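User: Second chain of the day. Same drill as before.
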Amino acid sequence: MRVTKCFIMIVLMAYDFVWAVDQQPEEPVAAVFQRLNSPTDMHAAVEQLLNRGRSDPKVREYVALHLPPLIERGPLQKDHLGPWIELVRLAGGLKIAEASPALTKWLTIDNIGEVTTAGFMRLQNNPAGAALVQIGDPAIPAIVRVFDHGTLRERRYAVYALNLINSKGAKSALRERLNREPDKDLRDFIQKSLPG
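Assistant: Same format as last time:
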């Protein structure tokens, strides 16, 4: 009987300890966001913002306000994309539509170099393109603006992103672009991607 009481006391004390740890106040979102400037803590900060931003609209709101300028400035070093890719991953993971214009500015940054229209494009090696696809329909207006001023390569990535969004709005944007696209190969790709 005495052993049972001791065991129950230990279990209750452990439960109280776990409950107390869970009740610790969360780090303010501004402080977590500030950690994005630390190369050693950036990944952990992104993960924390992703987790909190998915369930807390105020965290997502804060990120939506402060993240686009960081993406806009682009990678600080061309040969070290990791920190910038983490920011882009945060934008896509939280579907931050406000970051779409900044993301389209960097559509040609990819991890493996030039990609052709041959085959199925998944944009898995193109961080900005992949984030735009995650954002989905709210990113379409920013993607469409690429058609007005973008290089062939930028327009190609814009077409791939719209194709992968694959919504009614994205298909409509592709249909509208079909007859205005000056590059024959890209026109052909658009034509093939549209339903019969």
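The two ends are 77 Å apart (CA to CA).

User: Great, on to the next one.
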